[in-house]
Write a structure and sequence with these properties.
Blueprint: E1 6-7, E2 13-22, E3 25-28, E4 33-42, E5 47-50, E6 53-55, E7 59-61, E8 69-71, E9 74-76, E10 81-84, E11 92-94, E12 97-98, E13 106-111, E14 116-118, E15 126-133, E16 137-139, E17 144-147, E18 153-156, E19 161-162, E20 164-166, E21 173-176, E22 180-183, E23 187-188, E24 194-206, E25 210-212, E26 217-226, E27 231-233, E28 239-242, E29 246-249, E30 256-258, E31 262-263, E32 267-271, E33 275-278, E34 290-293, E35 298-301, E36 305-307, E37 312-314, E38 317-320, E39 324-333, E40 337-338, E41 344-352, E42 356-359, E43 362-364, E44 368-370, E45 374-376, E46 381-383, E47 387-389, E48 394-396, E49 402-404, E50 408-409, E51 413-417, E52 419-420, E53 423-424, E54 426-429, E55 441-446, E56 448-451, E57 454-464, E58 468-470, E59 474-486, E60 490-493, E61 503-505, E62 509-512, E63 525-527, E64 532-536, E65 540-541, E66 546-548, E67 559-563, E68 566-568, E69 572-573, E70 581-585, E71 589-592, E72 596-597, E73 603-606, E74 610-613, E75 617-618, E76 624-626, E77 631-634, E78 644-646, E79 650-653, E80 669-672, ...
Parallel strand pairs: 1-3, 2-4, 3-5, 4-6, 4-7, 5-8, 6-9, 7-10, 8-11, 9-12, 10-13, 11-14, 13-15, 14-16, 15-17, 16-18, 17-20, 18-21, 19-22, 21-24, 22-24, 23-25, 24-26, 25-27, 26-28, 26-29, 27-30, 28-31, 29-32, 30-33, 32-34, 33-35, 34-37, 35-38, 36-39, 37-39, 38-40, 39-41, 40-42, 41-43, ...
Antiparallel strand pairs: 52-53
Length: about 700
């Protein structure tokens, strides 16, 4: 025991063996070498200051003193343990600490409640670094690091290479901020302070995986990766904060779990073919700059919200675990999104390259690049911005409205299905469809369709159960467009349509309220059994060939005048109908100026309105019947040879303006059974008249 403060000024060697107590402290920086094999202590505020030192046996440097302990480069002999500090509040400053190469590993223990700084590398042949107490430690490079009963923040500011890193359930923090760090074991941070993984561009590899759920917060500033093992960062009580652009990588197959809220104005990239899970919100406090998730794995978004100022890119198959809002400049999903029975709201632009399914509803506020199908279950789909097709998708919303609030363009087909059974879904196009780039075909099955202008090639097929309308112009793309109407509902076409393909009405009613509702007269219109073509609004349909089958909807007429005085100038063919054909004029006057080919089929004209047939009815033995209370006027020299029957109203035979021919073929018979036959021509020869 030496009570005074000792300074070794000699330039030779200093060797301290056994237990040496320097009560007032000791300084030995002048000697050429310093060797310790035992215990060196100080008391009070005495300092211990050694320069380069060799530790040849198990040794302890420290005591009850709160004075500074300073060691230069320390070299430990094989199998030796060096303990610096004895549990007092002693500040410690170390340089490099190394073992003896190719020998038995040596160990380092730091035991102080004061601060610790290690400015050099701790590593060569060092087996275990144990920090039993600390008020804050800065370490660089160690093999096995054990952090036990300590406080403050333990900082690894240089390259940390450790076989094992162990922590204790104490209130200290850990910061790994070297540029390149590798820890081999599966690391579980039990400390309850903060954990910092990088401070900007650093790389930390946890070969065996890492779990950080006990600390109060996880700060990430660089690359955190594992070798196909699980990375768990945060939980409901532990948030994750990005302090710089960061990458989290699970290698080829390691799972990544972000268990708490994730915030920070930096980019986040997730790379793994395993499962990535976001348990909490992302960017709810401070929006991320961007989020990128690579392909090949699965991603579960369970926190309900992901918010970025820039883009979000999901290469994985995504599953939602809550009603979810994705907010960013552009949201891209390259793989599928399974809604999991929850809603999906995208606030920003969207690039849909993978199918979205099993979402209760979807809503996109910005533009949409639509390259895959979207299916919602109970709610609708809303596309507020312009939609561009990059493939031929199918949109399905059985009981909700599919709403396009802007335009739809793209040289692809579009299929929409949101009606079936008891479900009642609607489709609304507010803007033009195909106005810039025509589509290649449109198939819509819905309850109510509301649309503006439509341009496409192929076929526009509408199956509607409710009252629907297309108010804009229906036009061809680069080639002809055909229009097909099915479903029990009525579809009204009120635009000056210019499409040149066929019009087919296979079910329900197609109502024409414009002269050009049926497009140009280049092709024809066919009405199937049980369907109807309705005319309204005082229009004149040009020389559009018309084929009629059957008696319409509930015997209301396959061709039906609904309101106003309307004219159909095209030829009408009923000869191929499997049964008789009915034409009705419910109100106003229907004028048929084209010839009617009846073949062997019955033609019945009825309704409370009037009908003028100025075209020739003929080319067969089919009968002609007049029914209901309206008036039918025949003005041509008809050639049909079948029976003419008046069942109600008035049948007028009118050739007063002609001096040749008769209205009814001279060989034909006529029966009047409840109606009026009015002759308004110069003469009429009738074979047989039955009253």
């Amino acid at each position: 025991t030496i009570t005074n403060a000792v300074t070794f000024s000699n330039t030779g060697t200093v060797t301290l063996a056994g237990t040496t107590a320097f009560t007032g402290g000791v300084t030995a920086t002048a000697p050429s070498s310093r060797t310790i094999n035992g215990t060196v202590t100080a008391a009070g505020t005495g300092v211990i200051n050694f320069g380069i030192v060799s530790i040849t046996g198990d040794s302890t440097i420290g005591g009850t003193s709160t004075g500074q302990i300073t060691l230069g480069a320390a070299t430990l002999s094989d199998g030796v343990t060096l303990t610096v500090g004895a549990g007092a509040g002693t500040p410690i400053s170390l340089s490099t600490v190394t073992g003896t190469a190719s020998g038995t590993a040596s160990n380092l223990t730091i035991n102080t409640t004061g601060t610790v700084t290690v400015s050099g590398a701790v590593g060569t042949d060092i087996g275990t670094v144990t920090i039993t107490q600390s008020g804050g430690t800065t370490l660089v490079n160690a093999a096995t690091v054990t952090l036990t009963n300590t406080t403050g923040t333990i900082t690894f500011s240089g390259a940390l290479t450790a076989t094992t890193l162990s922590t204790a359930a104490q209130g200290y923090g850990v910061a790994i901020s070297g540029s390149s760090n590798t820890i081999t074991n599966e690391v579980i941070f039990y400390n309850t302070g903060t954990v910092g993984l990088g401070n900007g561009g650093d790389s930390i590899t946890f070969t065996g995986g890492v779990t950080v759920t006990a600390p109060s917060q996880v700060n990430i500033g660089g690359t955190v990766q594992s070798t196909n093992t699980t990375i768990t960062l945060g939980d409901s009580n532990t948030s994750v904060s990005l302090i710089s652009d960061s990458i989290i990588s699970g290698g080829t197959s390691g799972n990544i779990i972000l268990g708490g809220a994730v915030n920070g104005g930096s980019t986040l990239t997730i790379n793994t073919s395993g499962t990535t899970t976001f348990t909490g919100t992302v960017g709810a406090g401070t929006a991320l700059t961007s989020l990128t998730i690579d392909s090949g794995g699965t991603t579960a978004i369970n926190g309900g919200s992901v918010r970025t100022t820039g883009a979000q890119t999901y290469g994985d198959a995504v599953t939602l675990g809550a009603n979810t809002t994705l907010t960013g400049s552009t949201i891209t999903n390259s793989s599928t999104i399974n809604g999991g029975g929850y809603s999906l709201t995208i606030t920003g632009n969207s690039v849909i390259n993978g199918a979205i399914s099993n979402a209760t509803s979807t809503s996109i506020s910005g533009t949409t690049s639509l390259g895959a199908s979207v299916t919602t279950t109970t709610g609708g789909q809303t596309y507020s911005g312009a939609v561009t097709l990059t493939a031929s998708p199918t949109l399905t919303a059985p009981s909700g409205t599919i709403l396009f609030s802007s335009t739809v363009n793209g040289a692809y087909g579009l299929t929409i299905t949101n009606s079936g059974g008891a479900n009642t879904g609607d489709v609304t196009f507010t803007g033009a469809v195909g106005g810039t780039t025509p589509l290649t075909g449109i198939t819509i099955t819905t309850d109510v369709l509301t649309a503006a202008a439509i341009s496409s090639t192929g076929t526009l097929s509408v199956t509607n159960a409710g009252t629907s309308s297309i108010t804009g112009i229906i036009s061809n793309g680069s080639t002809a467009l055909a229009v097909t109407k099915a479903g029990a509902g009525t579809l009204t076409l009120s635009g000056s349509n210019s499409y040149t393909g066929d019009t087919t009405i296979s079910a329900g009613a197609l109502r024409a309220s414009h002269n050009n509702s049926l497009g140009t007269t280049a092709s024809g219109t066919t009405v199937a059994q049980g369907a109807a073509l309705e005319l309204s609004g005082g229009i004149t349909i040009g020389a559009e060939a018309l084929t009629l089958n059957g008696d319409g909807i509930s015997s209301g007429g396959a061709l039906r005048n609904i309101s106003g005085d309307n004219t159909y100038q095209g030829t009408i063919d009923i000869s191929s109908s499997a049964s008789g054909v009915r034409i009705n004029s419910d109100s106003g006057t229907l004028t048929l100026s084209g010839n009617i080919t009846n073949g062997s089929q019955l033609l019945l004209i009825g309704g409370a309105g009037d009908t003028v047939v100025s075209g020739i009815i003929g080319n067969g033995a089919g009968e002609f019947w007049k029914a209901d209370s309206g008036t039918v006027t025949l003005t041509a020299t008809n050639t049909y040879t079948g029976l003419t029957k008046v069942l109600g109203g008035t049948l007028v035979l009118d050739k007063a303006s002609s001096t040749t021919g008769t209205v009814i073929d001279d060989s034909a018979a006529i029966t009047i059974n409840g109606g009026i036959l009015k002759l308004n021509d110069l003469y009429e020869i009738l074979d047989t008249v039955t009253l």
